[in-house]
Design brief:
By secondary structure, the chain is an alpha+beta fold. It contains eight helices and five strands; from the N terminus they run H-H-H-E-H-E-H-E-H-E-E-H-H. It has two domains: 31 residues; 156 residues, TT1751-like domain (TATA-Binding Protein, 2-Layer Sandwich).
Length: 192
């Protein structure tokens, strides 16, 4: 066996040893994980490799149909949220803050916040760290080319990326994530 063959054999043995160690150390814990965790991390890793950017990999982005203004989209978001009993809790017009500080026009970037307080309570009771996901936000962003986009943080990692959530919390978290995506998709088309 030549030099490279010995090197590859050593690498193979080290890989098998590391895999065995990982299995015995973490295998029991992995059995408590949500059944969707592998697919969730695969999707995250694929998007990460495609973009090279972890921020893009954690965000769901939808381009807004041409002809709609930022105000049209924000009204659509609020209307669709109300129709799904999802409370609109506020807007942060980031672009206005930038304009006030620079005395220069700035592209539209605003953050709209939505909440289902009872699901939020369930999340906070489960793990205080989950409050960082509240309220749910959808950013209305005019990109550098003038196109409007809607961006929201994906809840897939929170829902499926680790230990399985209690059934009632998981069901409600999945429902909220579905509502957010429906609101985002509908508003991108100008639905009311």
């Amino acid at each position: 066996m030549g030099f490279f063959g010995k090197v590859f054999a050593l690498i193979g043995m080290a890989t098998v040893a590391a895999g065995g160690y990982g299995y015995f150390k973490y295998g029991p814990m992995l059995k408590t994980f949500d059944e969707g965790y592998v697919a969730t991390y695969k999707q995250f890793a694929g998007k990460m490799m495609e973009t090279g950017d972890p921020g893009s990999a954690m965000v769901r982005s939808v381009q807004v149909k041409d002809g709609l203004s930022a105000d049209d989209v924000k009204e659509s978001l609020k209307s669709l949220a109300a129709s799904k009993n999802f409370m609109f809790v506020g807007e942060a017009p980031f672009y206005k803050q930038v304009q006030a500080m620079t005395n220069k026009e700035y592209r539209h970037i605003s953050f709209l916040s939505f909440c289902d307080a009872m699901v939020g309570k369930m999340m906070a009771e489960y793990n205080d760290a989950y409050t960082a996901f509240m309220p749910c936000r959808i950013a209305v962003v005019q990109d550098k080319n003038g196109k409007l986009w809607l961006h929201t943080m994906s809840l897939d990692l929170m829902i499926h990326g680790g230990k399985k959530l209690p059934d009632d919390l998981r069901k409600e978290a999945e429902r909220v994530w579905t509502v957010i995506k429906e609101i985002q998709d509908g508003a991108a088309q100008g639905d009311i």
